[in-house]
Amino acid sequence: MPPLTASSASSLARACTRQTLALPRTLAVTTSAQQLRAKSSSETAQTSSFDSPFGRSKESPSTLKIPNFGKYASPRNATSNKVFSYFVAGSMGLITAVGAKATVQDFLVNMSASADVLAQAKVEIGLNSIPEGKNVIIKWRGKPVFIRHRTASEIAEAENTNWEGLRDPQPDSDRVKKPEWLVMLGVCTHLGCVPIGESGDFGGWFCPCHGSHYDISGRIRKGPAPLNLEVPQYDFPTEDTLVIG
Ligand code: FES
């Protein structure tokens, strides 16, 4: 061990003195903090309505002051609060359902067919105004419809035709509901022209576009058209009324 000089002995003495003085100061600070914690804990116990699960023990006293929210609590009892909550929730649900129903209903009504379109869906014709042996052309859904009041000779001719050998074989009874009334779409089955009535080689209709001839039952007899004139859906609600559509 080296010999102790005067200066090193002095430094050693100063360090020992500093450590001796620091110990009481640390003890003083610790004691003061514990006192503050204890004071805060006692104040919290006096002012707070909340019993905190943390702290409040001798080992670790709480340093938090939990506020009292008592003044925000509802003065009514729990049942009254539930009834009010259910009433508000139910009212909002009812208002939302009514609004949704009105929105969907308006949307569907807007998407449905308008009055003028519905009016064209069916057409009613008074048959008393059509004399025997005459044609009438009406417009239905943008297409011409031929209505022919056939005579007895025309009915006999239509029924006595050998229909099995025709291009589009069909008996006259399949094309009419009443033999005296022939109802057909006035659209040529070749390329869509409107045939001319009471003309052609078979006394029915003739399409001048490419020369198709239809007989008095609207069946194709000659020319390029492949099919008979189409029969639309129709009915006779009364004896002298025809409804197409
Ligand atoms: S469109 Fe009628 S014959 Fe061609």
UniProtKB/TrEMBL annotation:
Cofactor requirement: [2Fe-2S] cluster
Molecular function, one GO term: metal ion binding
Origin superkingdom: Eukaryota
GO biological process: mitochondrial electron transport, ubiquinol to cytochrome c
Feature: compositional bias, Polar residues: 33-51
Domain Rieske: 175-243
EC number assigned by the record: 7.1.1.8
Keyword Ribosomal protein included in the entry's annotation: no
Entry's cofactor comment: Binds 1 [2Fe-2S] cluster per subunit.
SUPFAM superfamilies xref list: ISP domain, ISP transmembrane anchor
Compartment list: Mitochondrion inner membrane
Topological relation to the membrane, as annotated: Single-pass membrane protein
Similarity-based family: Belongs to the Rieske iron-sulfur protein family.
Note: The Rieske protein is a high potential 2Fe-2S protein.
Protein name: Cytochrome b-c1 complex subunit Rieske, mitochondrial
Source species taxonomy: Eukaryota, Fungi, Dikarya, Ascomycota, Pezizomycotina
